Automatic annotation (TrEMBL):
Cofactor binding summary note: Binds 2 magnesium ions per subunit.
Protein name as catalogued: Fructose-1,6-bisphosphatase class 1
Cellular localisation: Cytoplasm
Binding site for Mg(2+) 2: D115, D118, E282
EC number: 3.1.3.11
Catalytic reactions of this protein: beta-D-fructose 1,6-bisphosphate + H2O = beta-D-fructose 6-phosphate + phosphate
Length: 338
């Protein structure tokens, strides 16, 4: 690839030439999602100058109060993707059921899932938020499309990524050949390759967890965090730092950039041992990116991408990031069971 600026399109064309993982319909899908993220960034960046802050006076299927920007982002992604002929259906955190591409448009072979604006509690306080997306192929031979077609393990993803709306607007993407980052050049309105072959350091001194939930955690998580807090006098023999942005996209971006461990474990308020985060459009795409960058992603015990969902909005516990730390948490869970 030339040392000069590489655009998203050039990167995708060259990746297809090198690895053959990006058929033209998938390239179109990624470019359409990237364009939608540029449109969302414009609304996000307006803040109080546009009628985009505050709540929309409605709740989503999760029972969460919807922000105006949640609805704007959801509509932008639906409208950008429904006519292209690359998709059979979409699913969103903001919609109860799947959105089947209307008959007036050609049907494609891909399924797109997204959290249109993750971290919305941060919108009104000007903290980074993001769009998360995951792409599956519609199962061969399935007539029409139903929610069951989405119930595939994370290992079946053909692409995943996020766009973080922060000091920079950055698109982070994998199609199974490593992780690349593209920064939005606002003057030209184009995505420029700014990092290729991203790697997560296997060790870290930085953990991310919402400490206010400590009293609800299971023993292995308490043990792990207590040891981090004990610092160099404790069993880990080193001091740790803590970060919690409460925007998964921003916390994961930090971990992809400099390492770390992110934990949203199940807690005793969750009767069915699930967690807060959603498997299909938060945990799975982030797990794909982290694994492609040499990290690990589990629910505390088992690989997230190995789980087969049975419901569209299924929740899961999440432990992801620097491989050696994630594996330590798994070991503590196994020791607790024995
Ligand atoms: P808490 C945002 O609402 C989100 O889904 C993730 O982006 C984030 O990591 C988590 O929830 C924050 O949860 O309980 O700390 O507000």
């Amino acid at each position: 690839m030339s040392s000069s600026r590489v655009s998203l399109t050039q990167y995708l064309v060259e990746q297809q030439r090198l690895h053959g993982h990006i058929p033209s319909q998938l390239r179109l899908l990624i470019e359409v999602v990237a364009r939608a993220c540029k449109r969302i960034a414009i609304s996000v960046n307006k803040g109080a100058l546009g009628d985009v802050l505050g709540t929309a006076g409605s709740e989503n299927v999760q029972g969460e109060v919807q922000k105006k920007l949640d609805i704007i982002a959801n509509e932008v992604l639906i409208e950008a993707n429904e006519w292209g002929g690359h998709l059979a259906a979409m699913a969103s955190e903001e919609m109860e059921g799947i959105y089947v591409v209307p008959n007036r448009f050609p049907q494609g072979e891909y399924l797109l899932m997204f959290d249109p604006l993750d971290g919305s509690s941060n919108i009104d306080v000007n903290v980074s938020i993001g769009t998360i997306f995951s792409v599956l192929k519609k199962p061969e031979g399935s007539q029409g499309v139903s929610e069951d077609d989405f119930h595939q393990p994370g290992t079946a993803q053909v692409a995943a990524g996020y766009c973080v709306y922060g000091p920079q607007t950055t698109l982070v993407l994998t199609v199974g050949d490593g992780v690349a980052m593209f920064t939005l050049d606002r003057e030209q309105g184009s995505w420029v390759l700014t990092a290729d072959d991203v790697r997560v350091p296997e060790d870290t001194k930085e953990f991310a967890i919402n400490m206010s939930n400590m009293r609800h955690w299971d023993e292995p998580v308490k043990r792990y965090i207590d040891e981090c807090l004990a610092g160099e006098e404790g069993p880990r023999g080193k001091n740790f730092n803590m970060r919690w942005i409460a925007s998964m996209v921003a916390d994961v971006h930090r971990i992809l950039t400099r390492g770390g461990i992110f934990m949203y474990p199940w807690d005793k308020r969750e009767p069915n041992k699930a967690g807060k985060l959603r498997l299909m459009y938060e945990a799975n795409p982030m797990a794909f990116l982290i694994e492609q960058a040499g990290g690990a992603a589990t629910n505390g015990r088992e690989r997230i991408m190995g789980l087969t969902p049975t419901k569209l909005h299924e929740r899961v516990a999440v432990v992801l990031g620097s491989k050696n730390e994630v594996e330590r948490v798994t070991r503590y869970h196994l020791e607790a069971k024995s």
